[in-house]
Amino acid sequence: MSFPAPYTIVRDWLNERAEAGVVRAKVVTGVAYSDGVLTVTIEPEKFVDLNAWNSLNEGYSDSLGDFYATELGWTNKQSVYLREMVTELRVVTADGSVLETVDTAAYQRKKNPQF
């Protein structure tokens, strides 16, 4: 079974989440993949009040990186494929500043410690 490019899988999932009203997905303005690095660009200032954005993120138990890495953490074949292709996920701002970096193998072990 072949899967689409890593950025396509994550972009499509984020689009679904945005359509469902998930704010963390609504603020994504780009998803790119190069040399094992998946980059998620967010611009919350374009979509939500920044005070509300900060309050929202303080209330979550997972970080931004953990949220955007969700599709890499499952134990299904698509997630295994993603982890083979993606070694690192970066959450960046529009100017390229890195907000968070996630080691995808470590993320999967944290999400599914029995594997």
Tell me about this structure.
By secondary structure, the chain is of the alpha+beta class. It is 43% helix and 21% strand. It has one domain (6-105). It has a 4-stranded mixed β-sheet.
Q: Overall pLDDT, averaged?
A: 91
Which strand order does the major sheet show? 1-2-3-4
Task: Give the helix proportion (percent range).
Answer: 40-55%
What pattern of helices and strands is seen along the backbone?
A: HHEEHHHEEH
Task: Compute the number of structural domains.
Answer: 1
Tell me what portion of residues adopts beta-strand conformation. Answer: 15-25%
Structural class: alpha+beta
| Poorly predicted parts | none
TL;DR of this structure?
This protein has helices spanning 6-19, 23-26, 50-59, 64-68, 77-85, 104-111, and strands spanning 28-34, 37-42, 88-92, 98-103.
Brief descriptors of the model:
115 residues; alpha+beta; four-stranded mixed sheet
Write the layout of secondary structure elements.
Elements: H1 6-19, H2 23-26, E1 28-34, E2 37-42, H3 50-59, H4 64-68, H5 77-85, E3 88-92, E4 98-103, H6 104-111
Parallel strand pairs: 2-3
Antiparallel strand pairs: 1-2, 3-4
